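This part of the workshop introduces the protein records we will be handling. Backbone structure tokens are a discrete shorthand for how the chain folds in space. Once this layout is familiar, the rest of the handout is easier to follow. The record below serves as our worked example for the rest of this section.
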Amino acid sequence: MKTALLLQEGRATTHLALPLLLAHLLQSSMGLVDTIMAGRYSAVALAGVGVGSSLFFPCFVFLLGLLTAITPLVAQAHGAGALASVRGIVQRGVLAGVTVGIVLMFLLRQCAFILAWMGVSPEVALVAEAYLKAVSWSMPIAGCFFALRGGSEGLARPRLSMIAGAFGLLCNVVANYVLIYGHFGLPEMGGEGCGYATSLSFLIMVFVLYRLQVRSALPLHKKQRFPTAPVLAHGAHREQVRLLQLFALGLPIALALFVENSIFSLIALFIARMGAEVVAAHQVALNISSYLYMLPYSLSAALTIRVGFHLGARRMLAFRHAVFSGFILATLGALLTAVFIFIFASDIASLYTNDVAVSSLAASLLLFAAIYQLPDSIQTVCAGILRGCKDTRAAMLIVTLAYWGVSLPLGWLLGIREFAGLAPGPAGFWISLICGLTLAAVLLLLRVFHVMTIKASVPTGRVCHAAP
């Protein structure tokens, strides 16, 4: 493999990944801001927002995963020069996102029985339920935003979503300040205010991103302005079939992300029985870990675009260079974040809370997060490569095996049952996460090499899809 070509592809991937990273960091910073500002309000508010987020986030990433299918579809259409089909892909995505978002909104508003079943303490459950009802309004709005974002990112214009994310974060900070503490004559809502702030922020992001896309003259909003138009117009059957194809590609991605994040949510709910201090410490460690996860996730998204574009253009050699440059960048990024966590664990924890016991426990949990940076980065990048190849079902099965087959039962044994002499507590759950992430990384890496072997056997000018 020629080093010059590898460096060239690495630069192209980095050029895409940096604005994607900023966009994702800005969006995920809303959760960071929620956690910090709720923690400054009270430990109960922090615990309530943390438990509520553990139920909200799997639904959120399910919606995100479903609409992630828009990015490789648009990228391959872009690579093939079929820009006329891009508009229809995005409009179908908006329709799917808003519809599924409304369903998820009603589901989130019925989660009180789950909190009772998991034995969450009454004061924490009260805040969590109020937070869930407030943040549920964001789901259909987020569905629209993810569809629009997938269109601009698939056309290699990630800066638009980065700008929209900046406006969303600014709105979130101001809204949290006003709603949590009750300024300007509004009632003091505590943790519930975080939910309303998130919903308002997504509304701002949709408006800003739409206006930016129109001003940039992207082929997304011309002619048919309403997402329902293709379905109601002549040829409705053909459009419905294409909508089903979007679901067929996006549903495995959504389920894979749901499985992965549901493990974190289930662990948070198990830990909720251990008291507000343990819940708060776990939430701090999980929040900073999720924040740093944006680095491999952004690289994964960039690789989805590059791989999809090369396959659409039938450039198999460039496809291979994109894959290997992605692995190099993922490894370097993981090592940097691991070192960062090891050095600054105590300082990071102290930013979230003034409670010494919570800060100390959170710092110890962050050390486990540092260990799993490398396998987490590799498995995330592999998933992005497979999405660019429109090979999503295998990743779903692998992630299900790794997390529900390994992490969940092992976490129950180590975190609750005093298995292998380890005292019950949150550390056992974090050890189980390391094991699950490592297994997922190995299996997904093997799948990527299998797909590359199939692509390499196809002459330039033809494109095949990997066997499911």
About this structure: The chain has one domain: 3-456. The CA atoms of residues 383 and 395 lie 6 Å apart. The chain is about 80% helix and 0% strand.
